[in-house]
Write a structure and sequence with these properties.
It contains four helices and five strands; from the N terminus they run H-E-E-H-E-E-E-H-H. The chain has a domain at about 40-140: Beta Polymerase, domain 2, CATH 3.30.460. A five-stranded mixed beta sheet has the order 1-2-5-4-3. The protein has about 170 residues and is an alpha+beta fold.
């Protein structure tokens, strides 16, 4: 289970470990999400922006119970350095239009793994090779996955896009 100090007071029945056997595996979406509404909104905007620039393996994890520094990690991949930068620029532009600016940006010089910190959400845009090597999903797989807008939500590294899943033909 995704455990740690919680940032918010939650009812005891919903506290970590209080799910009464509703555990989850890395491939399932957990029922217990404690990220703020703002963090979930930012994740949706950023995921749509990343998908617009053809990012792959877009996943959002609710890490709010595990970390005190942020609520959501959004991960996505790109096939080359130029695409990494294009995805980052699109995410920043969309979030700027929504009234949000990053407080920190790292890794731009190398262009293989760029991190955007919006306090409520930390966005990792990685070259596919870095994504495979560092395998951040392995670290956060027990944390609840946030649902992402269709056709954004995908299975994970090596996962399928919405258009590739049975019944997932794209936007509704």
């Amino acid at each position: 289970m995704c455990r740690g100090d919680t940032r918010k007071a939650i009812p005891a029945a919903q506290a970590p470990g209080g799910r009464g056997g509703e555990g989850h595996t890395g491939g399932e979406r957990a029922a217990h999400v404690t990220a703020t509404a703002r963090a979930v909104e930012l994740a949706g905007i950023a995921a749509e922006a990343a998908a617009e620039k053809l990012a792959t393996d877009i996943i959002a994890y609710d890490v709010s119970e595990q970390l005190v520094i942020t609520d959501v990690f959004l991960l996505c991949s790109a096939s080359n350095d130029r695409q990494v930068r294009a995805i980052v620029e699109e995410i920043e532009e969309r979030l700027r239009k929504a009234g949000f600016r990053p407080v920190r940006r790292e890794g731009e010089r190398e262009g293989r793994w760029i991190l955007l910190d919006y306090l409520d959400i930390v966005i990792h845009v990685q070259h596919a090779e870095e994504r495979t090597y560092y395998a951040l999903e392995r670290l956060w797989k027990d944390c609840p996955r946030l649902p992402l807008p269709e056709p954004v939500g995908v299975g994970g590294p090596g996962g399928t896009s919405a258009g590739d899943r049975p019944g997932g033909t794209g936007p509704r």
